[in-house]
Amino acid sequence: MGPGGSGTKTGRTLEDMIEAALRGNNYDYQKQVVVGASLYGGTYKADFLVGDIIISCKWQQTKGTAEQKMIYEIASLIKIVRGNKKYRKAYIVLGGKGFSSTCKEYLLNQRHREILKHGDLVEIVSLDDLVALINSKKLDR
Q1: What is the pLDDT of residues 3-44, one digit of tens each?
Q2: Which of 23, 25, 88, 103 could form a disulfide with 67 if both were Cys (CB 3.0 to 4.6 A apart)?
Q3: What is the CATH number of the domain that holds 52?
């Protein structure tokens, strides 16, 4: 099975749930938008762009290496937000049962901000928390 494997399909389900919440709350959004270059210079495609907010979805179905790549993901988004005045903030949405409890606790408590300069530009949220922001019209505040 290639990169992403079945995670690509299940990750799409996470995106579908977020899109339903955005659409149901009349947000203007774009899907799969190139927003800049990742930390090492490759093309970075956001799952959603809502005004000046980047949303990246990270699904981990089973235990694996995704959690080890999260600091790189966060650093890439910091670089993009800081380097382009079009973007104000980024959210990374965690989904799936594959993230370890210690990883989820670390990320959802925004502990990356302790080690990454400008870490406040990226907020890590669960699907439930993102949908609550969308439903209460607070996503873009």
Answers
A1: 444 444 556 889 999 999 999 999 999 999 999 999 999 999
A2: 103
A3: 3.40.91.80
